[in-house]
Amino acid sequence: MRSVKYQGFSDNEFIGHSKAKVLSEYSVDKIQYFDKATVIKCQEALGHGSVYGIWRTGPELTGRNITPSLEAVNFRYEIQSKMGAYLQTPLFFELLDQSELWLARYALLLRIGPSSLRFVSGCLDITTISKTLRDHIARLIATAIKCKLVAETSPISLFLILTTDDVQKLKNNHRSISAELARMKKFHEMGLLSDIFCDASVETEFNPRGDKVEPQKERVREPWLPLPDWFMSEIGPKVLRLVKTIGPKIIDLGNELVQIAKDSDASLFPTLVQKFTANYFCEFKEREGADVLDYSLYVGPARINGKMTEYLSWGYWPPKDFVQFKAACAALQGAHLWLVMLAVAGRSQEILSIPRKCFVESSEGPLTINGKTYKLSKFFAGENRDWVVPPLIIDVLKQQTELADLCESLADQRGRESSHRDNPPLWIRLDARGKGGRVGDQLIDLNNALMYLCVRLGVTSKPEGVRVHSHRFRKTIARLAALAITESPRVLMQLFGHKDVGMTLSYILTDKTLQAEISQISREMRIMRCRDIVERVHDNLTTERSPFEKYGGYGGGAMPGVLSAVKARESLLLQSDKTWGVNTAYELGSLLSLNGEGYRLIRPGVICTKPLKDFMPCVCGSDCVNRIEDRTLRRDTAKVLEVLMGDGIRARSENNLLLLECIVGQISTEASRFPDIEKTLLDDPDYCALKLALEGGYE
C-alpha cells in the first residue's frame, strides 16, 4: 500500500516534487556538511526511508520490484563485507562511523546533484544510484579504511591515504571504479565534495616511474549475440508442447492439490500428494492415453552441489511428489516467459513490469497488453506502454495468470504466507526459499528462469558458449526482422521503443555474419521470384490458353525473352527424352537471374532483370527489355483504366481537348503494360470514340 506521504501524487510526480522540496530548503553544496539529523530528514523527504545508514529504493519510487540487496542498501554492512575480517578496534569503529556518514551524504548528492557524467546537469537513475553505493563506493571506502588501519592514522581525511598503486589496483580489478573516480572529481571541481580521491593525493608521489605494474589483460566486452537457428529449432517445439499440451495438465493437477491442502492437515500433505499423483497419472493414462506422459521434462533438483544440473537420467515428467510438481510449475512459467519475450522483444524489466491484469480491450483493433518501459524514459518510475500481441500470447498470459493464482492458493491453503497485493505481478516466485521470500513476490531475475528451462527441457543453456540471456531475444528478433522485413530498422525502432535509429542499427549489426545472410537470402528470393515467373509461363504453354495470356499474366518488355527461354528449355528436354520436372523451373530461374543477381524488385509490382552492377543505360518504361510487370498489377491496371475512361468520356462531353489528350496518353501508357489488356482496349468502342474525337477536334 502507498504510505500517507505519497498519497495525492503519482510515482513520477512524487519524485519530482520531493526533489524540488529538498532543493528549496537546502543548497546542493551544503550536503557535504550535513549532520545525521539533516541527512535523515532529506533522505525521508526524498522517499528513501527514515533509517540512518540504510538507503531504501522501494517500488513506490521505481515502479517495480528490484533485488532486495538494492532495495535496501545497508552502508555499514556493505563496507564491512568488502573489508573481510579485521580486528574491531576503537579506530575501526571510528572510521566506520565516519565512512557511514560520508556515504549517506554522497547518496544524497547522487540523488539530487548533477551526478551524470554524460551531461553537465543530468542525474543518475535511482536504481543505478543504489548499485553504485552498494558495489563501487562501498569498495572504495573499504580500501581506504584498510589502508588507514594498517597505517593507524587519524580519521581526519578518509581518502588522502590512498596511493597511486591502491587506486590503480582498484581500477584494474573493477573497471567501473574509474567512472566513480571521475564522478567524484566532477563534484570536487564544482565545489560539492571536498573529501575525495583528488589529484593531489596522486601528485604526492615523487617517483615518476613508480612501482612495476603488471599489464592487465584488456577486457573486451562482447555484445549479446542472437540465439542460433539450430538452438531455436531444437527448443521451440519443446516449449510449444509444454505450453499447449502439458501446461493445462499442470494447472488441473494443481487445482486438485489445492483441494487436498484445504481438506487435510499440513503435516500429512506431502504424503497425500505423493499418493494422489501416482493414482492421478495412472488414471489419466487409462483415460486419455500416454501421449501427455511421453514428454521429456526434467522435474528433479535443478542444482546439485551448487552447480546447475545437466541431463540427469532420473526425475522426469510426470511428477512424483510436491517438490517435482513445483519444478514443473517453474518450467511452465519459464516457457511462458520464453514465448512472451519472443513476441514482445522487451527488455527484462519491461517484461517483469507486465501486471497480472494486463489486457487492454479494444473494439477497433487487436488485443494489446500494457506494461512499463524504463531505460529511455525521463521518469524514474517509467512510462506506460502497450504491446500488440498475437492470439497465442493472449492464451499464454491467461495460462500464466492461472498458474500464479494457483501457486498463491496452494501457499495459503498450506499455511504458508503468500504475497497479497492490489495489483499482483504476473511473473512470481514459486517458493518461499531465501531471506524474507514469499510465494507470489515479484520474480527478480528472469535469466535464471530461462536457463533452468533449458536444463529441464534437455537443451544446452549456453548455446555457442554464451548463456541464455533476455537481451539475446531482442538481438534474435532484430536479426530475423533484418532478414525478412523491408525497412526493418524503422519497424524495429518502434518495436524496441528506441528514440534513435542508431540504437536499432547497433542491434541489427551485432551479428557480423548478418550481411552475408541477408545477401544469401536476397539471392534466393530473386531466384524464387524468377522461378515463379517461369512456372507460370510454362503452365500457360502446356494448357494452351488464350494467346494474349501466353506470359502467364505478366507484362513488360522482358517477357518475350522469358517465353523464348522456356520454349528452348522445353525443346531441349524433349530432345533428351526428359520431362519438365520439379527442379527444372528452379534451374532455369537460377540461370535467367544470373544466380540471383538479377530480377530485383525495384518498386512494388516492377521487376528489373538486370544485375545491380550492370553498366547499360537505364530506360525504365513498359517497353524496356529488362522490365517485368508483376501479374498482381493487372487488377490495379484494370481499375485505373476504368477511372481514366470515365474521365475521358466526361472531358469529351465538355469538349476539353487538352484534358482529353492527356487522359488518352495515360490510358495508352497504362494499357501497354500488359499485351492482352492493350489488345482488349484497342477493340473497345469507347476508347476508339475518344481517339476519334481527339483526331477530329484537332483537324
Automatic annotation (TrEMBL):
The protein here is known as Tyr recombinase domain-containing protein
Classification via InterPro entries:
DNA_brk_join_enz, Integrase-like_cat_sf, Integrase_catalytic
Q: Which GO terms describe its biological process?
A: DNA integration; DNA recombination
Q: Which UniProt keywords apply?
A: DNA recombination
Top-rank taxon of the source lineage equals Bacteria
Q: Does the keyword Repeat apply?
A: no
Taxonomy of the source species: Bacteria, Pseudomonadati, Pseudomonadota, Gammaproteobacteria, Pseudomonadales
User: Domain named Tyr recombinase: which ranges?
Assistant: 307-520
> Which SUPFAM superfamilies does the UniProt record give?
DNA breaking-rejoining enzymes
The molecular function terms in GO held by this entry are: DNA binding
Instruction: Supply the PROSITE patterns for this chain.
Output: TYR_RECOMBINASE
